[in-house]
Amino acid sequence: MLILFFIWPFAAFLIALYYFDRKESKLILILCGMFYGASFIIFSNGLDSASYFRKFLLYEGLSYSEFLTLDQKDYFIPYLSFVLSRITESKHILFAVFALLFSWIYVKTLWIFIEKYKENSNPNLLFFLFGIAVFVPIFYINGIRFYLGAWFYFYGAYHIIIHKKDKYFIYTIFATIIHFGFLPALGILIVFRILGKQNFIYWPLLLVSFILPSFYNANELANDYAELLSPSLQDRTLGYTHESYVESRIDSFSHAAWYVQWKYIGVLYYVYFALLSIIMSKKKYLIDKNSSRLFSFILLFLACVNFVMDIPSVGVRFRNIWFLFTFAFLFRIFSNKKSKRLELMPSLSLIPVLLYFIVDMRFGLETMNLFYLIGNPITLVFAESDISLYNIFF
């Protein structure tokens, strides 16, 4: 497959997907992710990726001392971009490196569940594996800071919750360096690590989180408490809670097509249904101690998400991460069953998750270069064409 990748990466990608449980597929998927980044199309100047590239070109003409005077929202991506600007001005290399990092932690995380699937081979697990794979896909390198951080946070938190291995805090701490928004998420994880499985606290907190937010404005509270932070963190926080920014995000979502809105709602309703079904039928499902800890964390994390749900760029993004944890929990529950037949609950997830995937795929096709489908790393060097698959198919 490695030789095939250099000849026709897309064919190697399809073979790696078919034999997803083989070790060599791991490398191929990472390389294919990198190739997607190298051929990434910035189809609008309003995209986050366009902003990253403009800053990258700006860094090229700056000395290190001048770079340090810039007001940066975060550290890792700006410093990485500055280092790359010392050796190239190529968009292909910049986004290839972004995609390489993203693909590495993405595949590394998925392999946790693939190894678990190989132990059991219960076909129901594939539905939940599909969900975990599509909630934060490779297309999200468009907003590389948050979503790269999301995978580092999830990977580290999963090991801390399931295996109680505190050395994995290095991944969650690194997530805060990638995007400062993971500081509260790290705080939630630390609180959970101290308290442990205290559902008698988490259940009432969750109930309150569904009621209390209707009596206050989360954006105004965030603005008030931002004054207690350092100047740099205060500026970053206000960037997400400023009234004009919040109104523009709400207006954009309210005018979005029904399927864009149901991309989230459908998955949310399914998760509620699945979790309630498991709670009400405990005798039917084997919940081991490790999974019960994950369930407790899910309660705590959802409560915290509900409290900030009115802050558009915070609530929705962290709810995506909550989806990862819930599907990881469902995966573990069904991995304890040796059934070889398809069951209703896992298969029902395909409806909302498929809608989620299709909506994201529409954006993905606009960023996916024709050369990702028919080219290879060598032809990409000589082809400066930005023909998207979306323009070809639609």
Q: Can you offer a commentary on this structure?
A:
The protein has 394 residues and is an all-alpha fold. The protein has a domain at 1-47 and 57-120 and 372-394. Helix content is 75%, strand content 0%. It is built from 23 helices and no strands. It has helices spanning 2-7, 9-18, 23-38, 48-60, 64-68, 76-85, 91-120, 124-135, 144-163, 169-178, 182-195, 199-211, 218-226, 231-241, 243-254, 258-280, 289-307, 312-335, 344-348, 350-367, 370-374, 377-382, 389-393. The longest helix is centred in the first third of the chain and has 30 residues, at 91-120. The radius of gyration is 21 Å and the shape is globular. The model has no long low-confidence stretch (mean pLDDT 87).
Concise overview:
With 394 residues, this protein is mainly α.
List keywords for this structure.
mainly alpha, 394 residues
Structural class from helices and strands? Answer: mainly alpha
**Mean pLDDT across all residues, rounded?**
87
Tell me the Rg in angstroms. 21 Å
Note the total helix count: 23
Largest beta-sheet details: none
The amount of beta strand, in percent, is: under 5%
Helix-strand pattern: HHHHHHHHHHHHHHHHHHHHHHH
Contiguous uncertain segments of 5+ residues: none
- Quaternary status: single chain
Task: Give the end-to-end Cα distance, rounded to a whole number of Å.
Answer: 31 Å
Q: Considering DSSP H and I runs of 4 or more, what fraction of the residues is helical?
A: over 70%
Number of strands: 0
Shape descriptor reads globular
